[in-house]
Write a structure and sequence with these properties.
The chain has a domain at about 80-170: Lipocalin (Beta Barrel), CATH 2.40.128. It has about 170 residues and is an alpha+beta fold. It is about 15% helix and about 30% strand. The chain has helices at about 1-20, 70-80; strands at about 90-95, 100-110, 115-120, 130-135, 135-140, 145-155, 160-165, 170. The longest helix has 17 residues, at about 1-20. The protein starts with a helix and ends with a strand. Strands 1-2-3-4-5-6-7-8 form an eight-stranded antiparallel barrel. Strand 1 (about 90-95) and strand 2 form a beta hairpin. The chain is flat.
Length: about 170
């Protein structure tokens, strides 16, 4: 018992001894460092800039051309396979205006067809709230039932079309 008491006393002394304030070689930690000198400022020049140089031929690539939005749906409609609603339910990646996001299609009845939801979408795709199948096309609509886009199946698990504002849009898995 005496040995146990002695060990406890030594442990307490060691802990209390470690709690002492020590000085770091006479370093006064309360002293503030001297302020820095400001950087020298040079003079300001004024004058006219030279005129811009005209680009040389071939220096810039040709501007891209957009496909004719009126021709694509007619060609797609003639070649598109028949659709079923059951084949479309689930999560899709939507691509529009150079961005991608998630679109979820369900078979819950909703204004404009069936319930849909978008996540992380911008532009027209952000308003997707409903969907339906009409013949060979998928119709995407907003919460009021107003059409947002029409898409046709272009490959297995891929649908392409355009929004009512003329932007291309695709759904793929």
């Amino acid at each position: 018992m005496k040995m146990h008491t002695l060990l406890v006393a030594v442990a307490v002394a060691a802990v209390l001894g470690g709690c002492q304030r020590t000085s770091f070689g006479g370093l006064n930690t309360q002293q503030q460092p001297a302020p820095l000198m400001p950087a020298p400022v040079g003079g300001v020049q004024s004058g006219q800039l030279p005129p811009p140089m005209a680009p040389q031929p071939g220096e810039f690539p040709a501007a891209p051309t957009a496909p004719d939005p009126t021709a694509a749906p007619q060609t797609a409609a003639a070649n598109a396979p028949e659709l079923t609603r059951e084949a479309l339910i689930g999560r899709w990646s939507a691509g529009t205006a150079g961005a991608s996001c998630d679109v979820f299609l369900s078979l819950t009845k909703w204004t404009g067809g069936y319930r849909a939801a978008s996540r992380g979408c911008t532009g027209d795709a952000a308003a997707i709230a409903a969907w339906d199948v009409q013949g060979k096309q998928v119709i995407l609509a907003d919460s009021s039932g107003n059409q947002i886009a029409r898409l046709y199946q272009s490959a297995a698990e891929r649908y392409d079309g355009s929004t009512t504002s003329g932007q291309p849009i695709s759904l793929s898995r």
